[in-house]
Amino acid sequence: MRQPLSLTAACVAGLIVLSACDKSDGQSVDRAFQGVNVIDGTDLNDVMLTVADPNEAVSYFQRSLGQDPDRIDFRRGLALSLIRAKRVTEGVGAWNRVVEHEDATNSDKTNLADALIRAGQWERAEETLNSIPPTHETFERYKLEAIIADYNKDWKKADSFYEIALGLTTQPAGVLNNWGFSKLTRGDGAAAERLFTDAIQRDQDLFTAKNNLVLARGAQGNYTLPVMPMTQIERAELLHTMALAAIKRNDVEIGKSLLREALETHPQHFEAAARSLDALENS
């Protein structure tokens, strides 16, 4: 993770030395450093937004904005990094400052809406999306529209937006998982099960969809794990989820049996399942 940054730092140091050889005054050295920051800015920004630790990225973009507060790419970088670092309240403020910039785009407004949803500011998020022209048809926009429609329990709109979002992405697993959870929330376990199954077929590593699939089956009284790729630890965790679904339906003895199976399956001590079983047996 640190190698690209170290290489950049080494290049910066080398160029400063060369500049100092040509002109000995400190002002020339400062100008050389600022020049390198501008030249390498795009590549280094990309590194910070992908492989760097989110809090390191926040510090980098804060320093960059201190040098050049009007650069919108630095504002965007800071806002994205704050969200990656789960500093959502600060992220909302940072996205507000991006949107205030004269070069802000509709995509920036979409990212602001995303941050507002994460912060639980649903009305502002909806207002922000409504301010974006309907001609701005992107996956991110319709994904957020679907989430807000879910929040408003406008199921017809939610289904429509999820369907549009699916047509705008080459990686549909996440959308299918969200749509499935929407169906599960409405009490439509069968539809939710189909969507979760489809999500897993598109991305076999998406554990959230596997867990949700087990919840959907459990909600229908089906307490057998589906056939799908899973590690031993995942199997134990899914058995635990299935047990909780059974207990919620008052199938307590089935829940106890599934908890025991989860404890036997897990390669280490499974504290959560052990606690659940102890609570049931002592109640």
Helix/strand order, N-terminal first:
HHHHHHHHHHHHHHHH
Radius of gyration: 25 Å
Number of strands: 0
Could you say which overall geometry the principal axes of the C-alpha atoms support? globular
Residues in helices, as a percent range: over 70%
For the sheet with most strands, the description reads:
none
- Class from helix and strand fractions: mainly alpha
Organism: Thalassococcus halodurans
InterPro entries: TPR-like_helical_dom_sf
Pfam family, one: TPR_16
Protein name: Flp pilus assembly protein TadD, contains TPR repeats
Topology:
Elements: H1 3-22, H2 26-39, H3 41-50, H4 54-67, H5 72-84, H6 88-100, H7 106-118, H8 122-130, H9 139-151, H10 155-166, H11 173-185, H12 189-202, H13 207-219, H14 232-248, H15 252-265, H16 271-281
Helix pairs in contact: 1-2, 3-5, 4-5, 5-6, 6-7, 7-8, 7-9, 8-9, 9-10, 9-11, 10-11, 11-12, 11-13, 12-13, 13-14, 14-15, 15-16
Organism: Thalassococcus halodurans
Protein name: Flp pilus assembly protein TadD, contains TPR repeats
Pfam family, one: TPR_16
